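Recall that a protein's primary structure is simply its ordered list of amino acids. Everything else, from secondary elements to tertiary packing, is in principle encoded there. The following example makes that idea concrete.
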Amino acid sequence: MAAAYSSTPLSSVLRALFGKAPYFGGTTFGFQGDWRRHVFMAAAAQAAMQKGRPVHILEIGSWVGSSALTWAQTLRQFAVAGSSITCVDLWAPFTTTGDIAKGGIYAEFNELAKTEVPYELFRHNTQSISGAVALHVHRGQSRDILPTLKKGAYDLVYVDASHYYEDVLEDLKHAAPLVRDGGIFCGDDLELQVGEVDLAQVRAKISEDYTHDPKTGRGFHPGVALACHEFFGRRIPCTIGFWYLEKSAGGYVDPTLINRSIVVPGHFTAEMQAACRTFLGR
């Protein structure tokens, strides 16, 4: 007689495999882009802090939780109790058929996104966010969720969801009113800006997630480049793909992230932490 097996929840499997330790390995795409950007994300969070007041961060695009852990570590270290992180993500496929047809990481990412693994990994990886830092999670389309959030309620809003032009532009439009005056509006994957790469080249590749500038050979996300160009109307401060602005009553000003305390994420591998310190000259 064949043995009968009960279905074990994925959350229980993750606990059995990794205990309370976060997991970003395998083909989970746990660290996307240039992960050294996290040290500048932590600096931006410090720039958003007001003395004696809790800090509230909104993250649009969370995937399996790496960036959420960086925010949490920074808040625990520098912010007062009562601070919070709000994560918004669809945790479902969004890659275009054109990119999927390329195969490789696009096909792998899309297949993974069809499962509950990314969402359950996010829950597993962020289980340590508790106590002095509250975690709020909204699952769904950002264009549906963001309009329901309170305007001006967040000290920092971070945009890192879909890279496709229309999606990025929608996120920028809906996210901007949520940043308080004096707060930080920032995001990821702006490797090249219009001006560094020809606008016609950006528009020609707008249906692609990622491409290369034919003149320099540098890789960039054309949708992010065009959306930021159209929304802000100018070149904006950016370090290795991480862009950041301070919101003011009259628009946006360029903040400085220098002279902030350095935060090297504790969930990074030893090699990644060493690479961050080398990059910073520490």
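Residues 33 and 189 are 7 Å apart (CA to CA). The chain has a mean pLDDT of 94.
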